[in-house]
Amino acid sequence: FALITPDIQKQPMPNRATPEGQQEMEPFLQNVSLIIIDNIATLCRAGRENETESWLPVQGWLLDLRRRGISVVIVHHAGKNGDQRGTSAKEDIMDTVINLRRPKGYEADEGARFEVHLTKARGLCGSEASPFEAKLVDNGSELIWQVSKLENPNLEIVRVLLAKGKSIRDIAEETGISKSAVQRLKDKIEAENDD
Q: Are 58 and 25 a contacting pair, CB within 8 Å?
């Protein structure tokens, strides 16, 4: 385990969005299988955040690391709308994108409690890709993660409207949920009823 942090550097952290900054990482990549970049806004300072072109040097570096068998976890901050900041091109080469959200009714004194949503999940489907809530709790002798399933709030809405005899099209128009999403929720409801 190696930690490279600006707190103990004599000079500013190199910009990982430049060839020079990427090259300076090379001595630390021998026999490494995982790199965590925390966070991308401070370590990969390239051009304008909303421009795809600015991301290309970092994307090339990440693809090179992947080819070499090095996995990368990137920590990124959400914008005001709750989605990732900057260009969506940052997600193009990612296998998995995890979005952490505050649960409804969250209070600051609860500490680490959040909803985990996989907004992109190559190789995962079904219940493996379902959102869940995670909460860090003290059981008296250690800190443990308590995990619980998150119910899709639209599921109950669709269930009620289907029971009223509404069509998929009617439900989509009434709720603003896409027809394909309504169909998936209807299929899930029917599967539950068959069990």
A: no
CB distance 86 to 50 below 8 Å = yes
**CA–CA gap between residue 89 and residue 60 (Å, rounded):** 12
* Residue-level pLDDT at 113: 94
List, as one string, the DSSP characters of 142-171: SEEEEEEEPPPHHHHHHHHHHHTT--HHHH
Mean pLDDT by 10 residues, the chain (195 residues): 82 87 92 91 74 86 95 87 76 89 87 90 85 92 92 82 92 88 88 76
User: Measured between alpha carbons, how far is 87 from 144 in angstroms, rounded to an integer?
Assistant: 35
Closest CA to 66 of 28, 35, 30: 35
Q: How many alpha carbons lie under 13 Å from residue 16 in its C-beta half-sphere?
A: 21
Does the predicted model carry a pTM greater than 0.85?
no
* Helical segments of the chain, H only: 19-23, 40-43, 52-67, 153-163, 168-175, 179-194
Q: What is the pLDDT of residue 195?
A: 65
Per-residue burial over 76-92, b if 16 or more Cβ lie within 10 Å, else e, is beeeeeeebebbebbee
Number of Cβ within a 10 Å radius of residue 180: 10
b/e string for 121-130 if b means 16 or more Cβ within 10 A?
eeeeeeeeee
- The string over 160-171, giving b where at least 16 C-beta atoms fall within 10 Å of a residue's C-beta and e elsewhere, is ebbeeebebeeb
Between CA 107 and CA 166 the distance in angstroms is: 38
